[in-house]
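Predict the holo structure. Ligand: threonylcarbamoyladenylate.
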Amino acid sequence: MAEVLVADEAGIAAAVAALRRGDVVGMPTETVYGLAADALNTLAVESIFAAKGRPADNPLIVHGVGLDDIERVVARFTPLGTALAERFWPGPLTLVFDAAPGVPLVTTGGLATVAVRVPDHPVASALIAAFGGPVAAPSANRSGRPSPTRASHVVDEFGANVSIVLDGGVCSFGLESTVVDVRGAQPTVLREGSITREDLADAMDIPSAAWSQQPTAASPSHLSPGTRYRHYVPDCAVELVPAGTGPAHAAKLRDEGSRVGLIATTAAPEGVVEVAQFADAAALAQQLYAAMRAAEAANLAVLVVECVPEVGVGRAVMDRLRRAAA
Ligand code: TXA
Ligand code: MG
């Protein structure tokens, strides 16, 4: 089994040694746990793809602790990208730039661009700083599964296929970073995430109405390669229902004889497993992936989830829920 290490000096040193050997390491971030490897080592990055069962054309995010690491993989920064980096790093925003020539093709999924971010988590920062270079890290789940938001989830996903997971507690955001292509003058959101379109609009002094008119599910070329694939899917059926209707719908399925669970703003009726109760979209975002895993552990046939309004982080939540239900 993977060993969960306290992220003290000895734990960080063990993880750095593993990265130097070309191994993969479970790394906490403020969004979700990542499966980290030396971003500039082709063989190491290949073992991320092998462990996850990830399609080779789905590129990885390169993580740095500061601009030094990021400059090693980016060919040219743009005014837009620099402005957003200054405003949101460290934090849950991933920026897509032209890739520097030395970046292994396996890291970029064969693209000429590279996705980069500086995570806002003390353990990720300590690990990358001690390693002394950029690390590539996708979410630490087997391909297609819900992302992990605590160390034990990473162990559940990979067992003995990962030797070390650094413990960084429960992820504070719980949803993956927002991915934005910043090569042009205008940003293109490739994946909704913890930094909202409203946050970006604010930072750029653009009225957020201009943002809400942007398509959220444009042609595949406007999306991150990863968003083409089946993703975030727990091992039970997921049914989305309008806000406020969860308990009644779950009770109906219960009466028809299903083993049913509920994620809603109100309590679950008798005979329905209360998987999570949330006050707002941000609270649901933080709990969502752990709740999906709880639903699997409870052997549910159906998980009923109430939709949230598609504003702010609600867009990212609904994006993940639709994929889970698809
Ligand atoms: O919050 C996060 O972003 C987490 C933590 C660990 O940092 N990482 C994460 O990685 O969610 P992953 O691999 O699960 O998702 C990365 C997304 C995928 O949709 C991928 O296609 C996209 O970023 N991506 C990576 N490089 C890209 C590029 N050059 N152009 C467009 N999209 C890219
Ligand atoms: Mg992922």
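The CA atoms of residues 45 and 172 lie 26 Å apart. The two ends are 32 Å apart (CA to CA).
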